[in-house]
């Protein structure tokens, strides 16, 4: 059986809503990470078999297969195709999975995987809003089949985050303490230069904009809960953001032929579904499934990246899996760094790879909750 290697991974800084990347066309934003990846690895771009990019709300600047467009905007060969993937928040993690599967199957040798999202230009759920303007219903909530199966109940990430907090007995204070720590970890990573090697600056913009140096537990405590809830506020939720990231996945043959130096290998990839109304609980069964399939224990991992869609998601996951929070999102997560939905999976992979090397660790696990009650799990092994 062949292997799928990670040769390199790179990302843009994450821009906050209305920030440094807000005016950048999504194709150019994606192209920036792709071009940086090609330049850093020195790989022959003409040898790339495919470009697989995650992106949600593919309208406007993100329409028309942005994976293909970003590759062309980067000035790279016409004959290399591209495809855009939508698994909601896990889109670019799924792009890495598809790339690894292509290599593992022997049908491809070099694939660029990643994602892009400009949430400033195209708000979250914009595709649903535009659909309504043209007289279409939402994708699921008004479906007769959906209503027959799940009933006429609110399906919302905010409701899910609130339900998770209640079910796992996670207080508002618990979540605010976790959110504050996310900001402190991200600020320490920035000040310590830990992101420098993984970021490809966009002109003079080279630092993530999300972390708030002036935040405090007192300020968080003063925020009003999201309508209909009691514990979830903006302080314990991920930030709306803009970014792109790209990862080069290669076969052993490509590594040898092109003189590449792999940095890690894909040890495991899987995806699982959970209750779509609860929506955000998927990382729990997905992690259990990955451990069962690999025979690994939660203590075998040096690092975890669990997307901070909401603080309650990560805290519930840690309670259920027994994972050490001291090894989870060690450089901060989406609450501090932001969550550019279509790019987040590849952004997490990039940060996880670099931090695993910095620590000299061996195994790391990445997972994230996704719309529809889904979750991907990727396990990598540092080489």
How would you describe what is shown here?
With 383 residues, the chain is of the alpha/beta class. 36% of the residues lie in helices and 18% in strands. It has helices at residues 26-41, 66-73, 91-104, 126-133, 144-150, 157-167, 172-191, 217-221, 252-257, 283-294, 311-321, 334-337, 344-359; strands spanning 5-11, 15-16, 50-54, 82-85, 110-118, 241-250, 264-273, 303-306, 363-370, 374-382. Strands 1, 2, 3, 4, 5, 6, 7, 8, 9 and 10 form a ten-stranded mixed beta sheet that branches. Helix 6 packs across helix 11 (311-321).
Number of strands: 10
First-residue to last-residue Cα separation: 18 Å
Helix content: 25-40%
**CA radius of gyration:** 20 Å
Average pLDDT = 96
Task: Provide the CATH architecture of the domain at 4-125 and 240-258.
Answer: 3-Layer(aba) Sandwich
CATH topology of the domain at 4-125 and 240-258: Peroxisomal Thiolase, Chain A, domain 1
CATH superfamily of the domain at 4-125 and 240-258: Thiolase/Chalcone synthase
CATH class of the domain at 4-125 and 240-258: Alpha Beta
Helices, by number, come to 13
The major sheet is characterized as:
10 strands, mixed
Report low-confidence residues grouped into runs of 5 or more. none
Shape: globular
Instruction: Give the SSE string.
Output: EEHEHEHEHHHHHEHEHEHHHEE
Beta-strand residue percentage: 15-25%
Q: What structural class is derived from the secondary structure elements?
A: alpha/beta
């Amino acid at each position: 059986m062949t292997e799928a290697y990670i040769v390199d991974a790179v990302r843009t800084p994450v821009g906050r809503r209305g920030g440094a990347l807000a005016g950048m066309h999504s194709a150019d934003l994606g192209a920036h990470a792709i071009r940086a990846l090609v330049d850093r690895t020195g790989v022959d771009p003409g040898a790339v078999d495919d470009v697989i990019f995650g992106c949600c709300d593919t309208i406007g600047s993100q329409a028309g297969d942005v994976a293909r467009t970003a590759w062309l905007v980067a000035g790279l060969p016409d004959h290399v195709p591209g495809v855009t993937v939508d698994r909601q928040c896990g889109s670019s993690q799924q792009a890495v999975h598809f790339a690894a599967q292509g290599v593992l199957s022997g049908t491809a040798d070099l694939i660029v995987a990643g994602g892009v999202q400009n949430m400033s230009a195209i708000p979250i759920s914009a595709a649903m809003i535009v659909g309504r303007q043209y007289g279409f219903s939402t994708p699921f909530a008004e479906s007769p089949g959906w209503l027959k199966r799940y009933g006429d109940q609110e399906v919302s990430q905010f409701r899910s985050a609130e339900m998770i907090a209640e079910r796992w007995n996670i207080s508002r204070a618990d979540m605010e303490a976790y959110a504050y720590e996310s900001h402190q970890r991200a600020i320490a990573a920035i000040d310590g230069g830990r992101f420098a090697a993984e970021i490809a600056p966009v002109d003079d913009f080279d630092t993530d904009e999300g972390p708030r140096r002036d935040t405090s537990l007192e300020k968080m405590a003063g925020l009003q809960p999201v309508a209909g809830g009691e514990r979830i506020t903006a302080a314990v939720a991920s930030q709306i953001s803009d970014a792109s990231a790209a990862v080069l996945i290669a076969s052993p043959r490509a590594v040898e032929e092109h003189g590449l130096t792999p940095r890690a290998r894909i040890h495991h990839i899987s995806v699982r579904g959970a209750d779509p109304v609860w929506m955000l609980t998927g990382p729990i069964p997905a992690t259990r499934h990955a451990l069962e399939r690999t025979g690994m224990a939660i203590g075998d991992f040096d690092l975890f990246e669990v997307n901070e869609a909401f603080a309650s998601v990560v805290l519930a996951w840690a309670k259920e899996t027994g994972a050490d929070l001291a090894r989870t999102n060690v450089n901060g997560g989406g609450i501090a760094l932001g969550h550019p939905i279509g790019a987040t999976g590849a952004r997490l992979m990039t940060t996880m790879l670099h931090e695993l090397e910095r620590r000299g660790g061996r195994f790391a696990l990445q997972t994230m909750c996704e719309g529809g009650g889904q979750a991907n799990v990727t396990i990598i092994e540092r080489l």
